[in-house]
Design a protein that fits this description.
Elements lengths: L1 H19 L5 H13 L2 H11 L10 H7 L15 H20 L4 H9 L8 H55 L1 H8 L3
Helix pairs in contact: 1-2, 1-7, 2-5, 3-5, 4-6, 5-7, 6-7, 7-8
Length: 191
Amino acid sequence: MRYQQDLQVALRERLRRLLVANSEDAGHEVRLVVSWMAGQPALRAILAEAEQAEPGLDLDGLAPALREGAGGLGRLFRWPSESEAGRAALIWHFLQQMAEDDKAGTDGSRIAINYGHALSSGSNINDMWRELAERAIRLLFDYLSERVGAESSVLYVIERYVRRVEWFDRGDLYQRAMADTRKAKRSMTPT
């Protein structure tokens, strides 16, 4: 259970870093977050499951839609997904595209302008980035945090079961070892 709580805290911290990032640092911060998320087995599993939620969804289509402006105003943007899981998969692929842009040398401010103008009504680059982070990226983190929390209760029950089984086995093994100490010593001696 502690792992899930730590993961939720780490997700919130990564989101905070994205929300407070300056537009110049946006691409680099996204790349760091994407790299960290890709290294978390629980998050990878949740994201892989989310990708299966809407089979016909164009997961790589969000970045071009935002780049093209989605009609020019943030108020006109519509999510092409039908579920929270589908939306999370879209955002995950979008973040990966942003990380690739940064890796390719695209300036962070350019990344913020490229994608932020479709969701922002402002003209300030930093405001565009923050609105993009708040209106789109935050939704992925909320989804992941919620899923980690939901799965933690199931995992807690499983962990409790494992501990009880281990304790039961340990006691049984100890009793058997005490019943035949010579056999127990032989099994512990390296061959």
